Every structure is written in C-alpha cells, then in structure tokens.
Amino acid sequence: MQESPSLLLCVIMALSLAGCSQATSAPTRSASTMAPLGPPATPLAPATVLPRTAVPTSGGAVATALSVLPTTAVAPTPAPQSATTPSVMAVALPDGSGGVGFDDLRYDATLGQLLVPAGRTGNVDLVDPSTQVVTPITGFSAQPRFNGGHDDGPTSADAGHGLIFVADRTTRRLNVIDPATRAIVASAMLASSPDYVRYVAPTGELWVTEPDQEQIEVFTLSDAQKPVPARAGVIVVKGGPESLVIDPQRQRAYTHLWDGVTVAIDLKNRTSVAQWPNGCGGSRGIALDSAHGWLFAGCAEGKAVVLDVDHDGRQLASLAVGAGVDVIDYNPTLAHLYLPGSTSASMAIAGVSATGALSLLGTATTAAGAHCVAADNQHHAWVCDPNHGQLLRITDPFPAAGT
After folding, report:
1. Bridge partners of 339?
2. Which residues contact 164 (CB under 8 A, 6 or more apart)?
3. CA distance linking residue 264 with residue 286, whole number of Å
C-alpha cells in the first residue's frame, strides 16, 4: 500500500528528534564544573632522612653511613614545634652493638676530639665532632659480652701534655697513649680499682680516684720522650671520692663525698682545704665554670646545685631535673649545663645566668641508662647509650645564657 507524503515526512522528523536527544542528554563536565568524586587526597608526608652513623672501615678510622636505628635505641624525638627543639642523632662505635659500660666522656679542645673509653670493647674511641668519624685506639682489656655496669676495660680517659691517659678497670693499670701513633707507650699499676683519671696541668701530675680505698692516687710523669707514670703518693678522701675536676686558676681540685659534701684540695700540697655541703642527697657529677668560680654538683635524686668556690662554697641555686643524674658537663661559651638522667632517659639543658641562677631551657629524650655526657665546642652534648653501645649527639639549639 502506498503511504501519503505528509505522513512520511512526520515519521522522518520524529526519528531525527529522537537521535538528537540521545546525543546531547549527558554533556561532559569541564575541570571547572566537575563535582568532586570524594574527599581531597591527603598530601604525602615528607620523606624522613635517616641519621648518619659511624661504622668501622678496614683502615682503622670509621666512615659514616646511613643506618636505621633500633626502635628501642632512642625514644622517638617529637616533630619540632619550634627552632628550639634539641635534635638527637645516634653515632655507632666499633664493636659496640652488644652494649658498652660507659663511665666517662671527655672533649679535648687541643686534640679536637671526643675521648670515649668504650669499656668491654677494649677500645678508647676518638670521635671527631664535625664529621662523626670514629678512630679506635686498641690494646686495652676486652670482654665479649656486656653484662651491665661499667666494670670492664677502659672506663676513664683524659688528655694533656700531648698525650692521652687511660684507666683500665679490668687490669687496674694507668696507660699512656701517643695520639699520633694511637699506641700505648707506657703504663703503671694502680693500687685499687680506678674510677676517674685526670691530668693536673699546674703540677704535671695524674690523679686517679679510687673509691674502694677512699683515696686519690697521684702519679708524676718522667721527662722521657715516652713519659712513664711514677707513683708519688695518695690523698685520703674518707667517704669518697666521687668525680673529680681540676681548677688550675685557683690551684685546686674538687671532688665529692657520697653523702652530700664537696671537698676542695690544694694541688701543690695535696691536702683538703675545705668541705662544703652541696645540697645533694647523693653526690655524683661535677663540673666547673672557672671564670666565675661556679662549681656544679649533679645529684643522683635528679637535681643540680651551684656552689660559689670563691665564697666558702655558698649555694647559689638549684634546679630539679630528671632522676638518675650522674656524670654532668658544662659549656662555658653558652653557659649551659648538661644533666642526663639515667632513670628518666632524658637530658636537661640548663642555662646559667650572670649571677649563677639556673633555668631549664629544654629537655632532650635520650635512652635508659644514659648517665654520662661531654660537651664539645660546636653546640653539641654527647650522651652515652650503654645498652646499645653508641653515643647520642644532641644539638643544643638554645641561645647563650649568662648575659
């Protein structure tokens, strides 16, 4: 049957309109008009840069390399909230991973090195504060395992007269080291188990504290190219001695008795000339600001006390800090006192005012058992971490006090 022309035209127009409707029913959104498909993406956190630690090389010195710290070595340092948050970096020591019984740390400005008697490893490690390179001096008594405490191997060191002096607690020997050759060039037997050895520049002597015998053993040094220590006598310190610091300006040495007393000793006569109460329940660490005549006592219960040695040991100030204070140190350029607490696993940084007053500037997280510290000349405090056989380098961000 033939369709009429008008009916055919209507059918064609209807089909065209249907096709246009399908092609335009879902327009594509531009970037400016597209609705979000979900919550905005969270930016990735910045990558964490691992601290550089020191690892031994075959040449004796120790190079730095990236390493991951054990999760229990150092408690996490909170993200900095300001420019005055102390930062902590671990520095490994040769053979130290099994633990080291530290008992003394020293920085020697002449050598430009940190002196680290590394206990049962049988080494005295020299650490460059600028590069963190560690150079071990070997030849001391060693133990394969760390059993806690600090009774094995080299446990105290000091420098002077172009030499390094080391007390070995296992052998009970006083050793003389040539830092150029890193070799033991002379030694002498000690009368008892040593605690600290200190070089006494005004007299050219070595003083070694021996608490088991309540004495300080004194040695002179010969004039030979390789000086040999010779026993010259003892200084009796009943109820001590604990810690020892030399004051060349006043020709004095200062040490503590265990029960809260500090003793002043004349360097030439080797006799006690004064005793002062220091405000400690348990006397431990000692440090000195020779220019001002301020002696700092670290108290085991978690306190620091300032004594005025020019005015009969008058107590100028005290400050409560973390528990377990033992070895302390002082940076005279910054007028900052460093007080690690082995129980609190923290180190307090205290500012010392022009009048000797103490104020807490900040606290750094360290490690359990971290009880000794040495300040270098680059705004660092180095804290021992015995359980992991390493050092913690803490950068002091605070401005100088004392003005």
Report:
1. 348
2. 111, 115, 124, 137, 157, 158, 176, 177, 178, 179
3. 12
Q: Which residues of 192-208 are buried (b: 16+ CB within 10 A; e: fewer)?
A: bebbbbbbbeebebbbb
Tokens representing residue 33 in the block: 């008009």
Residue type, 296: F
Domains delineated in the chain: 85-395 (2.130.10.10)
Which pLDDT score is estimated for 150? 85
pLDDT digits (tens, 9 = 90+) for 113-158: 999 999 999 999 999 999 999 999 999 999 998 988 888 999 999 9
Closest of 132, 128, 168 to residue 150, by C-alpha: 168
pLDDT of residue 243: 98
Q: Strand locations in 294-400, DSSP E?
A: 294-299, 303-308, 314-320, 329-331, 336-341, 346-352, 358-365, 373-375, 380-385, 390-395
Distances (CA, A) of 122 to 172, 175, 196, 204: 14, 13, 17, 27
Question: Beta strand 252-257 with 124-127: parallel, antiparallel or unpaired?
Answer: unpaired
Cα 255 from Cα 340, distance rounded (Å):
19
1 Cβ contact partners less than 8 Å away, ≥ 6 residues apart:
none
Please give the Cα distance from 401 to 55 (Å, whole number). Answer: 36
Task: Spell out, as residue ranges, where the chain has pLDDT lower than 50.
Answer: 1-82
Q: Which two tokens stand for residue 361?
A: 């500037």
CA 366 to chain centre: 8
Distance CA 341, CA 370 (A): 7
pLDDT at 15: 39
Rg (C-alpha) for the chain, rounded Å, is 32
Using the structure block, give the residue that is written with the tokens 């150092």. Answer: 74
pLDDT in tens, 235-259: 999 999 999 999 999 999 999 999 9
Q: What is the pLDDT of residue 350?
A: 98
> How many CB atoms neighbour CB 61 within 10 A?
15
